[in-house]
């Protein structure tokens, strides 16, 4: 293995703080049962130990010990230089030999770099344009800043400044400032001898001093996004008491900008001179009052009407928050994790087209091990590999952590964001995620869900996040105890542009014939057809559409579903007869259970033959038995007959049917395996039978 040079090689102890991260990359996740604070252990007996407080390790079986470099020599046979190179590749330490600190994915390259300097010209940080972007993006951007030792560190650092600050700081006060949508465009304007900066990362309040009292010429790109950004920057300049003027360049193609404009500086100057200039008195009546971002409808004339964009076509509007609710134990977490897998892998979700992009799923209720188990089943069901999801599907578990709320409310109901909110935004920015799931609202929103303005403020916060990341944010909620599709204030319904509900497929009378059947309903679509639905099955810890299942396999499934339904009907009839203190028997005669039950309304008309088969199944499964029912004191004798077995009693058999959530597999070895349903084709639903339960799960 070749080594790379590293300035000023350090002693082993200099890497002591990295030993935990190095050990986890080498040995995987530690044994949680044997580990404790300051001491992580690996192996069934905990023979490999890392002492994070001292930066040392010990392998008692191999009789090896030392620091971080010794650990890499022990594990991989690396010398000091090779170990340092390994840590550079793993992103644990900066590579001072590299020209940047940006982690590029396969096929990506940096095509342009823009230096942000202070007023003296000293570089504070750099912005790199990367092509192609992850997911379906044509490009993406990343930042790095000097590390103080001749190298680079990821991120902007603490001091964010306008682009071409040196020019802004040293320009005459009467010189206008030109703002274009991006650094390359600002550089072109500067090449014409103009004072120019970028509006892309403009921070209105922080940068207000640079535009106060000055004329600011804003040159929007020729598209809807450019118009929105121009209006935002105009409002920022107005708040700073500047004089903004929006100038639309003529003859631009759709989505065109100053880089492909065929004009020159003389024509631009003439356009600026002809534009109506805003005066401070027109902009505001008081220094602390800002105008709303008004758009003159006539500006739409001649512009192409933008296509509506979707995360999940017809279901999830792009740049919006989507509220997903559902009945308990129907599999909301499984549903959204499979949905995020499809957007990461570029697969349709249950047959519905989904926009591909980096997907971030954050749960507060499941540990990462449970997400691992669930994801393995999803991967096998969809026919994808872990490598297919590399850098595209990112999972976060906050289970057991404190302070998960994204905002708080004071006594007067005013909202303030929290450190968790800042952490969420930083994580999204670092990963480039455009599909984000927050599971669930009870943890992230700790206000009063019955107070409209608090719900509205929180929903607006999350919806604004979707707009900011140019993506979609899915928020999972719960129905209330009364059976409504969401709990708390109707503000949840009013604030979201799309609300989706997951339920069990049932008849008009509310009867559930197939406990594995699900229906996803578009309960509130602001931009599409109301009430449309997708029907599918829960099968082998993933979801699959009915129409994707071969008919022979579907017939087998229907038979199993019918049997489960008939069993429940038989038990309901038995409970009714027991309530009436009227015994039934499994022997032919006037009290023969199938014949008696056939005439009860509770039998739902399934008939004597099906009731007989249900009785035989329930006897085999030990859900029913013959025995003492009650004492007939009038006749002075015991009454015997068929009775239901109490599953909670010590004598109950483990072989009876069990109800459990599809989100949390109960893979008991006594539970009969479900019928395999191998569907046809790739529609974001299962098309392959998942592997048997993991060995450690089967022992639960």
TrEMBL record:
Polar residues: bias regions: 650-660
Gene3D superfamilies on file: P-loop containing nucleotide triphosphate hydrolases
Region of interest (Disordered), ranges: 640-700
InterPro entries found in the cross-reference section: P-loop_NTPase (IPR027417)
Stated name of the protein: RecA-family ATPase
Organism: Sphingomonas pseudosanguinis
């Amino acid at each position: 293995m070749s080594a790379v040079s590293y300035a000023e090689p350090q002693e082993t102890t200099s890497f002591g703080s990295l030993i935990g991260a190095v050990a986890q990359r080498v040995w995987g996740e530690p044994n949680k049962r044997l580990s404790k604070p300051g001491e992580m252990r690996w192996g069934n007996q905990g023979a490999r130990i890392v002492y994070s407080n001292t930066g040392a390790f010990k392998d008692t079986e191999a009789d090896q010990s030392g620091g971080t470099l010794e650990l890499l020599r022990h594990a991989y046979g690396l010398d000091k230089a090779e170990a340092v190179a390994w840590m550079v590749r793993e992103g644990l330490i900066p590579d001072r030999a590299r020209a940047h600190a940006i982690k590029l994915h396969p096929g990506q390259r940096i095509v342009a770099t823009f230096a942000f300097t202070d007023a003296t010209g000293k570089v504070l940080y750099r912005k790199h344009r990367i092509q192609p972007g992850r997911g379906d993006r044509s490009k993406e951007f990343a930042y790095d800043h000097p590390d103080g030792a001749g190298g680079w560190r990821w991120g902007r650092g603490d001091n964010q400044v306008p682009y071409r600050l040196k020019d802004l700081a040293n320009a005459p006060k009467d010189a206008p400032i030109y703002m274009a949508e991006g650094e390359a465009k600002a550089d072109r304007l500067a090449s014409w001898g103009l004072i120019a900066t970028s509006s892309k990362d403009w921070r209105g309040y922080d940068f207000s001093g640079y535009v106060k009292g000055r004329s600011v010429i804003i040159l929007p790109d020729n598209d809807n996004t450019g118009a929105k950004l121009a209006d935002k920057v105009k409002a920022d300049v107005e708040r700073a008491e500047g004089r903004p003027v929006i100038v639309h360049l003529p003859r631009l193609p759709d989505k065109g900008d100053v880089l492909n404009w065929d004009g020159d500086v003389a024509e631009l100057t003439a356009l600026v001179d002809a534009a109506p200039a805003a005066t401070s008195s027109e902009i505001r009546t008081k220094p602390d009052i800002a105008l709303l971002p008004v758009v003159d409808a006539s500006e739409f004339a001649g512009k192409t009407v933008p296509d509506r964009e979707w995360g999940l076509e017809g279901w999830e509007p792009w740049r919006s928050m989507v509220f997903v609710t559902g009945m308990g134990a129907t599999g909301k977490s499984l549903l959204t994790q499979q949905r995020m897998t499809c957007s990461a892998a570029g697969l349709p979700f249950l047959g519905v087209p989904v926009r591909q992009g980096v997907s971030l799923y954050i749960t507060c209720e499941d540990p990462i091990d449970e997400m691992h188990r669930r994801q393995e089943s999803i991967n096998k069901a969809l026919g994808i590999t872990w490598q297919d999801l590399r850098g595209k599907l990112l999972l976060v578990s906050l289970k057991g952590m404190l302070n998960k709320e994204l905002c708080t409310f004071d006594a007067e109901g005013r909202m303030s964001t929290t450190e968790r909110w800042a952490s969420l935004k930083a994580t999204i920015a670092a990963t480039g995620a455009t599909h984000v799931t927050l599971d669930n609202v009870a943890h992230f929103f700790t206000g009063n869900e019955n107070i409209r303005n608090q719900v509205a403020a929180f929903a607006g916060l999350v919806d604004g996040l979707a707009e900011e990341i140019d993506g979609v944010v899915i928020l999972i909620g719960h129905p209330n105890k009364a059976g409504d599709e969401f709990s708390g204030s109707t503000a949840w319904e009013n604030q979201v542009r799309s609300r989706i509900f997951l339920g069990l497929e049932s008849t008009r009378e509310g009867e559930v014939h197939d406990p594995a059947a699900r229906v996803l309903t578009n309960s509130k679509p602001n931009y599409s057809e109301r009430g449309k639905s997708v029907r599918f099955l829960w099968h082998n810890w993933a979801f699959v559409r009915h129409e994707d299942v071969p008919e022979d396999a579907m017939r087998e499934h229907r038979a199993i579903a019918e049997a489960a339904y008939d069993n429940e009907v038989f038990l309901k009839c038995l409970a009714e007869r027991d309530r009436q203190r009227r015994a039934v028997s499994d022997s032919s005669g006037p009290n023969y259970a199938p014949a008696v039950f056939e005439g009860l309304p509770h039998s739902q008309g399934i008939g004597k033959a099906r009731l007989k088969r249900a009785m035989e199944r329930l006897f085999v499964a030990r859900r029913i038995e013959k025995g003492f029912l009650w004492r007939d004191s009038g006749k002075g004798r015991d009454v015997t007959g068929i009775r239901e077995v109490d599953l909670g009693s010590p004598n109950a058999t483990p072989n009876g049917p069990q109800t459990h959530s599809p989100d949390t597999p109960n893979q008991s070895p006594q539970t009969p395996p479900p019928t395999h349903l191998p569907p046809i084709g790739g529609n974001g639903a299962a098309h392959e039978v998942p592997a048997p339960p993991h060995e450690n799960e089967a022992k639960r």
